[in-house]
Design goal:
homotetramer, alpha+beta, Thiol Ester Dehydrase, Chain A, 30% strand
Amino acid sequence: MEYKVFKRRINYYETDKMQVVHHSNYIRFLEECRMDFLDQLGISYDMLEQSGLMIPVLSVSCNYRMAVRYGDTICIVPKVTRFHGVKFEMSYKIYSEDFTVLHNDATSSHCFVGMDFKPVRIKKEYPELCEKFESIVGQDLLDIE
Amino acid sequence: MEYKVFKRRINYYETDKMQVVHHSNYIRFLEECRMDFLDQLGISYDMLEQSGLMIPVLSVSCNYRMAVRYGDTICIVPKVTRFHGVKFEMSYKIYSEDFTVLHNDATSSHCFVGMDFKPVRIKKEYPELCEKFESIVGQDLLDIE
Amino acid sequence: MEYKVFKRRINYYETDKMQVVHHSNYIRFLEECRMDFLDQLGISYDMLEQSGLMIPVLSVSCNYRMAVRYGDTICIVPKVTRFHGVKFEMSYKIYSEDFTVLHNDATSSHCFVGMDFKPVRIKKEYPELCEKFESIVGQDLLDIE
Amino acid sequence: MEYKVFKRRINYYETDKMQVVHHSNYIRFLEECRMDFLDQLGISYDMLEQSGLMIPVLSVSCNYRMAVRYGDTICIVPKVTRFHGVKFEMSYKIYSEDFTVLHNDATSSHCFVGMDFKPVRIKKEYPELCEKFESIVGQDLLDIE
């Protein structure tokens, strides 16, 4: 997979009284990055939901290393760290635009579920999706050093 | 109707880099006030939606007179200014806790719709709701001077 | 001015239980568009603030004509409708990506203020900014029909 | 310390297309709970900031066990799990109003910093604050079983 890094400007409404991006918004940036990542895998989350599959969040963790400010542009590098049929885990690194600053590192875990929120084993019902996840797990999408 | 004024503290995450509440959040405060107002009328919006009725927003307007800050508590006084079967309009005044400062005055208009977003004439299907709106239209709920 | 239309995908976290974009988020989209518009005028809002000038919102109004959904991309066309030294007004049209649907039309008004929130007459202190606003007022930036 | 549990209704704008509260909002609920907790300790965060002390978030983690929906009221029980002069850690349990459902368990870690974002050892400059944290660390504020 040739990954085009997820790049994103900070909006004014995402800052807070401390003059930096409010910490809750990073969780939203991760979601944006995840959706973009699925898109780049050739999977439209919108279409998935229309076909009856949802991917809720089971857990998130976020380490705030260096505050992001209004005027900044961030780059997020995601990685699928584990996948086994029903669940998967991702990690994320949020960098400055020039990759010299690591602002944040984060993880999230997810479950494939139906509209009733019951787990769905995607191997059978969504074989293409399953293959894509198997092909990408553990892979570094970008070479940063 | 004996109206208990909608009172609400400002959350830190609602502030922005200007050190005041971000202007978009007032629109959310109006929604909170509206839901609370329906509650006080004996109408649970949650139940309404479960019964197939939604009340989307057709328009909003907001005049920002004096910024609200973290640490502040606001009081909102709503009023149903028009109602005719399918649509209604509301106005709101957002005051400081002691009512000495008028921070914001606002309006919103709404339509009763079904799950298909088509207008619903509530007189027939929701007579109780209709009566409540008729009884409250044009009424000042609080005596501020 | 050659205006490049402000284009923007909808984020999942911007939707609500009605399955459409929550109405408060449009106010945020307008801000994004406004900042992008200033950028295109050659004005960095970030730099303006660093130099001591802020542009708070005095009022907003928003007409919700057709709901925007997750998966949609919107295009926003802004216009400076009035400007007189200290204050200015803008209008916005929010279209579908292909400009066949007008989702929303909105307005906002603003004041130039210093860090003490007191009005600033930009003609003297920010002549370049003033000229740019004068040159753009009343101008349709895009030809949509 | 006699702790009054932090109770909070869900706002409509906090839901998403999945018909449940968007996961990013829990991070905001934790902040609300933390500020309320400080208040109950007799510490106004607003005053702290005015005196030059800020308490940014270093990390958060959140486990989503059972979705919260519009119409729900949640109760959050916080706990200071570690404190050593400059940093502290908290844990949180988010329950249903009747404490029969554990919706979420979470943690956060924080640092006391000055307006320059440099760490501040509060023992010397904020002895009262320090004592309060020392007295509360490791303590279960509510007896839930």
